[in-house]
Amino acid sequence: MKLIGFEEGLFPELDNYNAGFNKGSRRLKVTIDTLAAKTHYIENYPELLFNTLDLLPNIRNHRCSHGENEHAGRDYDMSHIFSPIKIVGDVIDTVHLFEHVALEIQCQVAEMQECSGLTCNYWEPETRYDVFIEYEEAPIAEFSCLTSLKLINSQINTPEEPFNIRDVLMLATTIARQEVEDASSLSSHLGWSNGKLNRIIAELQELKFPFSAHLPAA
User: Fold this and answer.
1) For the residues 160-167, what does the mean pLDDT come to?
2) Quick one: CA dihedral 61, 64, 67, 68, positive or negative?
3) Are 148 and 101 in contact (CB under 8 A)?
4) Which of 23, 91, 142, 211 is positioned for an S-S bond with 215, CB 3.0–4.6 A?
5) Which of 217, 195, 211, 216 is closest to 187 using CA atoms?
6) 74, 157, 87: which is closest to 116 by C-alpha?
7) pTM, rounded to two decimals
8) Is 160 exposed, middle or buried (CB count within 10 Å of its CB: 0-12, 13-18, 19+)?
9) Cα-Cα-Cα-Cα dihedral of 50, 87, 72, 174, to 10°?
């Protein structure tokens, strides 16, 4: 999948399609294209879903309202033991999973308790989708979407190097929550070598993490 662009806005018309959106909240529109053949996404989806749930088990706490008057809270639901995400058996399932991964990353990094999204497909071109993400901080929302896209692509393609989402999230949440007093203490706080810290910092830079807004002074 390929990112086409971001657009920030209120998009109030979305309230008619997902009652889970907080009224008046800001939403990030993420436009992406699917690049592979339809069969590639459909055949790889089951493994993609279960691998993603293993990496981000909190996604089992999500709910898909499909317009029902219910907010996507984070309470565990036993009915989600197979999948918390409604599946239709088409390419949009992969894009919909991208939405939920982005929401989960944002909830973890920005400590958001409520956050909703919506996935919409185009009639033409049929490979294009708009994903709307509710947010409080636009830079964190964009980082979450870029990280989600990299995670999904790393599983449905064959990357040169594996993407370690757990380390990326550990560093991002540590910085965002300012759990250390200064930047030089990050490696000892995380129990990482300086080499590993520098590698993960480089990944965060690639994913446009807003260091300037969250990193404590050195």
Assistant:
1) 86
2) negative
3) yes
4) 211
5) 195
6) 74
7) 0.89
8) exposed
9) 30
